[in-house]
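Protein entry
_____________
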Amino acid sequence: MKNIKAIIALVIIGGGLMLFGSATFQVKETNQAIVLEFGEWKRTVKTAGIHFKIPLIQDVIYFDRRIRILDMPEIVVMTSDQKRMIVDAFTEFRIEDPLKVYQAVRNEHGAEARLSIITNSNLRKVFGLQELQKSLSGDRSELRQNIREAVFREAADLGLEIVDLRIKRTDLPVENSAAIFQSMIADRNQVAREIRARGEEEAIRITATAQRDRTVILAEATRDSEKIRGEGDAVAAKTYADAYNKDAEFYAFYRSMEVYKNSMKNNDTSMILSPDSEFFKYFNNMAGN
């Protein structure tokens, strides 16, 4: 009799534990869950701990609430100038609304697959509006922001929050890298020739202006020097005239001495002149007679 009671007690306890286990579920700190009743949503649980549900009627589906990284394979995009390039990117996201994820794609794997399609589509769309040179430049912050905003809007409809989207690498396909580089070199050389031509034109203009200014300055300097020389000659002539009028004999003597000095300053005293020349009058007579 005692054994029967013990068995019954164990059955009751076991059944109670099974009932309690089927009526509860645990949500960890890294998870969130939705409760479904016959496939219909009843509630979303984001608080960690033990929660209750109706056994055999309600089911629980768990979703990760941590930030996840979706590393996508490289894709080939076409730029606005019809150039092909390789883009390698990744997305950081978290599941913000598990109900939307369940209704749209059922589970986390479906969410990653759909997000990969959305990201690839927007990468092609945004890069398709850019020229190759700008797409390959070091500063891609504006480009990345445009892609992130486009992906954010579509991902929000899936219940996903885009934390970040980064472009790891942009490059040219191996088969057309050489042709693209040669084209870019030709474009840069053309720009260099145009800049050099404008520089030479500017140099010619500056040189012509400088030559014109030099001619004007020299002409003005010559004019001013001739004017000053004329004024000096006039003053000298007046000075000589005044001196002659005061003492004509001394003036004649002084002028003769100047001529003697200038004619003999090269240490050459040989001259061929007539003996009765006026040149020697002060040699023969101090009075010059």
Notes: The two ends are 186 Å apart (CA to CA). The CA atoms of residues 218 and 224 lie 10 Å apart.
